[in-house]
Known about the structure:
The protein is mainly beta. Helices cover 8% and strands 42% of the residues. It is built from four helices and 31 strands. The chain has helices at 10-17, 402-410, 412-418, 440-449; strands at residues 23-24, 33-39, 43-51, 57-67, 82-85, 91-96, 103-109, 115-122, 130-135, 140-145, 152-159, 164-171, 177-182, 188-193, 198-204, 210-217, 226-228, 234-238, 247-253, 259-261, 267-268, 274-279, 285-290, 295-301, 308-316, 323-329, 332-337, 347-353, 359-361, 374-380, 434-435. The strands form eight sheets. Strands 17, 18, 19, 20 and 21 form a five-stranded antiparallel beta sheet that branches. It has a four-stranded antiparallel beta sheet with strand order 4-3-2-30, with no helix packed on it. A hairpin with a 4-residue loop joins strand 11 (152-159) and strand 12 (164-171). Helix 2 crosses helix 3 (412-418). The radius of gyration is 23 Å and the shape is globular.
Amino acid sequence: MLITYPVPLVRTLIGGALALAATLAYAQSTVPSLWVSNNGNLEGSVSAFSVNPDGTLTFVNRVVTGSRPNTTVPCAGCNSYEIALSPNGRWLATAHPAGDLDGLFVYEVAADASVTQRLAVTLPAGFDAPLDLIWLDDTYLAVLLTQASPDRITAYEWNPAGPSLTPVGFVTPGTGVGYLAVDPNRDYLYASDSAARVIHVYAIGPVGSLAFIESEPTGAPFALEINVTPDGRYLYGAGGISGSGQDVVAMQINGDGSLTPIAGQPFQTGGASPSNVYVADGGNFVIAGHGTDATMRSLSLAAGTGVLAPTGFVFDVGLQGTLGDVRSLGGSVFVTDNSTATDGLTGVYSFALGANGSFTMNGGSIYLTGGIAPRSMATWTPPQTFAPGDLNCDGVVDILDINAFILALSDPAGYAAAYPDCDRNLADTNGDGEIDILDINPFIAIIEGG
């Protein structure tokens, strides 16, 4: 039962309930954002962009993670390969299969989308070569380690107060695993295995645990990069050079997370060696990037069946192997060009995705990342914003927020459970970056002034 309190009693209730230390309130970007990992052999870095309403990009900052004069010198921060953003938008992580000092990096995201490096971890020899990584939730990061045999998917606990990344467990899916994906609710983890031509399925449990469900065969083609639709109904995988050399593996996701091949799959893209797939935000198109012909192509996605069909719309990045990654955000799609071979430029292209799957370039040219060999991307759309003090997220700051405010200060986990769609940072009513008793008077003033 909801209990409400008269405003004059708030100071007494909160003061008696909250004899606690201040808790840091971490940021997230307040604007649509794009981050790029720059996979240079001589310099690794991460570049941040804000995405404007018209799909153009504005460069925000770049963090150099490591550099060296030549490849004989060890460099833990070079080869910033894959990149992943936590569900709450506050933490970026990158995997660095640098060869001699493989590692993981974590960055904090600011309100303007800029990033600051918070941690660098060198992986132990024999369990390194991180090819992919993905956040299981805001605390646990799954990392695919391919140096050992068989491969390992290791779950790391992220502690920003340390800061630290601590391995808490692992599973051994096989010897040909290359990419990871999760469903939108983060109930299931998927791992593509090109050697066994299967997709492994795991249930995500508490504290980063993974429970094996099945290994679903993909047929003649194997799957490289994999991606799940925003509604969690379908999974698609880029077939590379396998099968016809133009294939996309297509699976229906069942209620228990298991997979069933979609009738008629694999579907062909019309391009050579699909290496990347990403489902556009609207769920109507799959964007496929290709290794051999370096093209980006759109395929229509039938919502009721998951069947794909090429639209015929193509963008050519350049020479073989120069397309790094494809991504979507709102009505825009992005593709990275990782080589200067044809025009002397590397960076990110932005396109408006038409209702028919067409590509119209936003801004008319490439956007420079400032780094070497731009590769993987992560995108972010900020959640609906609410005013400070609106702890129950009903659009109004009033006495109905008092219980939620008390919970936000005294029991962060309890607040998250009671208000899963709200942001505890709304309790920072004095705007000092901390959630503590100094926020009580400003919170009361907001209510009394409303």
